[in-house]
Amino acid sequence: MKVIYEDAHSALKDLVRDGMTLCVGGFGLCGIPERLIDALLDLGVKDLTIVSNNCGIDGVGLGKLLNSRRIRKMIASYVGENKEFERQYLSGELELEFNPQGTLAERCRAGGAGIAAFYTRTGVGTLVAEGKPHMDFDGDTFIMERAIRADLALIKGWKADEAGNLIFRKTARNFNQVMAAAAPVCVAEVEHIVSTGTLDPDAIHLPGIYVKRLINGSPYDKRIEFRTVRQRER
Predict the structure, then answer these.
(1) Are 193 and 232 in contact, with CB atoms under 8 Å apart?
(2) CB neighbour burial string for 104-118, b if at least 16 within 10 angstroms, e if fewer
(3) What is the distance of C-alpha 93 from the center of its chain?
(4) What predicted TM-score, i.e. pTM, was given to this entire model?
(5) What is the pLDDT of residues 128-176, one digit of tens each?
(6) What are the CA-CA distances from residue 145 to residues 103, 131, 135, 184 (Å)?
(7) Are 93 and 72 in contact (CB under 8 A)?
(8) For residues 91 and 82, what is the distance between their CA atoms, to the nearest angstrom?
């Protein structure tokens, strides 16, 4: 199987279709597969269900798909700074399935591990628990959460070798690692691709067996989601 593709468009054009469910890595603007997201926009797919921690910010990352009405449903844990996300949800234009953040991560991890469902105490007694099976263990009540399996996973890494073995950089690992295994096909974009055998096997975060297609998306601009500066002293 060909692993390295020339660009995001060529890596995705024969994989995507309307109505797909996609697991997308990232947290805010940190570790988002922005080249792959742009390719989704260019390819014109619509009615998408997106599984991601949040939806970026207005006009950036997944926010681009949101602005162009390509997303039908979000499975997320945070609305964040995205005003269009908030507007579409409150107006009934966007379906939203809210999850506690740890629950969302575990649902994706479970999907990749072949675990159909699991029990957690998070959300017991809240709206999150409504309609879900409950079970008592050792005197405490837990709710059942179903695993998530998507059609396609899109992730962002820092460095990969030609076989697709991948390293994340610090907090940019966030949801990327669990998303990668939660779909039968994972496409990754990275900042650097090196020769196979260059990376220390003990340093690899995601084995290449999970990465079916790979692109080098460099160069990237460093974006700051919410800039806070101190007052200049006089």
Answers:
(1) no
(2) bbbbbbbbbeeeeeb
(3) 22
(4) 0.93
(5) 999 999 999 999 999 999 999 999 999 999 999 999 999 999 999 999 9
(6) 8, 11, 12, 21
(7) no
(8) 15
Residues 6+ apart with CB under 8 A from 234: none
Q: How confident is the model at residue 2 (pLDDT cuts 50, 70, 90)?
A: low
Q: How far apart are CA 231 and CA 234, in angstroms?
A: 9
Residue the block writes with tokens 């779909």: 183
Q: What CA–CA distance (Å, rounded) separates 175 from 78? A: 13
pLDDT in tens, 3-47: 999 999 999 999 999 999 999 999 989 999 999 999 999 999 999
Is residue 11 within 8 A of residue 36, CB to CB? The reply is: yes
Per the CB < 8 A criterion, the answer to whether 183 and 149 are in contact is yes
- How many whole angstroms separate alpha carbon 160 and alpha carbon 165? 5
